[in-house]
Amino acid sequence: MKVLPLSAAVAAVLAMGALMPAAAQSAKEPAMSAPTPVDAHQWLEDVEGERQLAWVRERNAVSNKALADNAEFRQLEADLLAILNSDAKIPGVYKMGDYYYNFWQDKQHERGIWRRTTLAEYRKPNPQWETVLDLDALNRAEGENWVWHGASCLRPAYTRCLIALSRGGADADVTREFDLASKTFVEGGFFRPEAKGSLGWIDENTVFVQTDFGAGSLTDSGYPRQTKIWKRGTPLASAELVFEGKPTDMYISAFRDDTPGYERDFVSNTVAFYNNELYLRGQDGSLTKVDVPNSVEKGVHREWLTLEPRQDWTVGGKTYKAGSYLVANFNDWMAGKREPVVLFEPSENSSLASAVWTRNHLVLNVLEDVKNKLTVLTPTANGWQRSAFVGAPDIGTVNVGAVDSDESDALWMTASGYTTPTTLYLAEIGKQPEALKTMPRFFNADDLQVEQHFATSKDGTRVPYFIVHKQGMALDGRNPTLLYGYGGFEISLTPGYSGTIGKGWLEKGGVYVVANIRGGGEYGPRWHQAALKQNRHKAYEDFAAVAQDLVARNITRPAHLGVQGGSNGGLLTGNMLTQYPELFGAVVIQVPLLDMRRYNQLLAGASWMAEYGNPDKPEEWAYIQKFSPYHLFDASRNYPPVLITTSTRDDRVHPGHARKMAALMESANKNVLYYENIEGGHGGAANNAQRAHMTALVYAFLWNALSKK
């Protein structure tokens, strides 16, 4: 087992869910700051109040009547559900011991089953699976609405597991000990009550625990600021403190690296996204900080310390470029030796997408103008040798992941494109990959083509974007076009196959566009950092430039151009609505941030201040208010039709953002529809039926708005 770079480790935790009781989903009290105008819609921040939920249900009914009450919608919803429930999808697996595990949802398993098989079976077109845990059966037995959040099993036997389950899909979850041999939960075993947090194995009788321990135990972001050691058979309250962070930190955790021969314990303090500390914990409980700046991403694999500077970094008399990938011997570094080796250095058009270790090799996945290129590096007595990755596809998005980095050089490799169904390969370094499974064609792509173009942003920056359209498309400005983006947290958008996009949009004749704007990670840390805080406007200028380029190419025009984005992408499309309404004919805003005056006081909002700034500081609010859609809204302006969606159970981005914006627009008699799924968490839906319904609402809204003018 390797220790992930801290950003990846934290991202995994945040994606699984974590850290504040679901009962505490209402807004936190605001910090002391300059007085702000009374918010007439702030009452909607009470997430589960009866009056508030009545307001939600009224608007859900209106949206369903406007969009879903017709045969065409019902057919689209059924088509999307069939794709989501398809038994022909690729079941992604991960190896534990002799088995390969998968979590699966389909028509018969609405909440899903955790199951396993052997590699020999998995190679077959229709493997025989052994069910380990049936969530639908569990929910019926317990009268619950559990949603799967993952499992961690103790090696080498892999018989005891820590399973995380969320009510309705919220980030907050419970952790329960599970016996793989009997396929039952362990009576009297480890149990972490519902909160944002996690458990991690140390040995069969000991775990690291991060959770809500009561008053003062959470950060301002609502995540654990304490990590403790908990012994089997003792009360959780008696767990021994290992490390405590500051309230202003983001997330504290501890974990064991159980790689045979390299067993070590670490404590991580994530101060903010891409700002972290790593400590080696000695057998006596002492903590030794890994002496590396907080802005450098740190990871450990066997004897190697991996280092990814996010800013130019001078150490040992040399300067290393931001976005590089460096390695050093871990023990030598801890002893004071400072001689990292550069394995990757970015260029103007390249960045590192991932670095994946196998038992004897390292595979670097580099993006060159948002296109993947794989290289194999091998440590030898004479330094690191480089070689090409045999059999990697030349087109499409390619990703790799280790099958078992402690024991073999095997890799999972996936290749995918907007019009090319995903193929899963089993690859061995130096050999031709073996194609194991290919996703079926969920839509007709025979007459589709994919292009990459570059728009020029306001400050002259070249902004790449991908466009998918029918061959022979008429350049008459009348093509219904959907522009999608994100532009935050160094997340890259690369081409990938989506049956729902294909069936719901492309097959009908729509044009689909993905913009690789600043704030993302397509060109590494510099691309992300170019749109932080006071420079946030550059992400929006990039997105607007792509919209304008589509019009300049006569592909579409504003009446036929729609935008869609969720979470940070919802903030993006909220700014398209309020700053560039003349560019668009329809706007979709999903699980969004919109009230940037209060975002840091709502749920996990404080954890994003490194991205957006602190609105409680007048000098920072001065620029934040310039990209706060809730405050930029002007009742006197004309706006295109808007669909806003969110989830009641989203305990990461508060549903109050979406609710208040819809209410604000309604109060000005603007054309706005609102839909809030009562379950679903930050993903918006808890099962495939909910996903199909919400996706169909989006495509029905967009097609109605963009295709009939």
Description:
- The chain has 709 residues and is α+β, with helices and mostly antiparallel strands.
- Among the domains are: 279 residues, Alpha/Beta hydrolase fold, catalytic domain (Rossmann fold, 3-Layer(aba) Sandwich), CATH 3.40.50; 53 residues; 92 residues.
- It is built from 15 helices and 39 strands.
- An 8-stranded mixed sheet has the order 32-33-35-34-36-37-38-39, sandwiched between helices.
- The longest helix has 19 residues.
- The N and C termini lie far apart (56 Å).
- The N terminus is likely disordered.
Shape: globular
Q: What is the level 1 CATH name of the domain at 68-81 and 442-706?
A: Alpha Beta
Identify the strand order in the major beta sheet: 32-33-35-34-36-37-38-39
CATH fold assignment of the domain at 68-81 and 442-706? Rossmann fold
Overall structural class, as computed from helix and strand content, comes to alpha+beta
Low-confidence stretches at least 5 residues in length (pLDDT < 50)? 1-36
Q: How much is the radius of gyration in Å?
A: 25 Å
Number of helices: 15
Beta percentage is 25-35%
Strand count, sense and barrel status of the largest sheet are:
8 strands, mixed
At CATH level 2, the architecture of the domain at 68-81 and 442-706 is: 3-Layer(aba) Sandwich
Straight-line distance between termini:
56 Å
CATH superfamily of the domain at 68-81 and 442-706: Alpha/Beta hydrolase fold, catalytic domain
User: Into which percent range does the helicity of residues fall?
Assistant: 10-25%
Number of strands: 39
Q: State mean pLDDT (0 to 100 scale).
A: 93
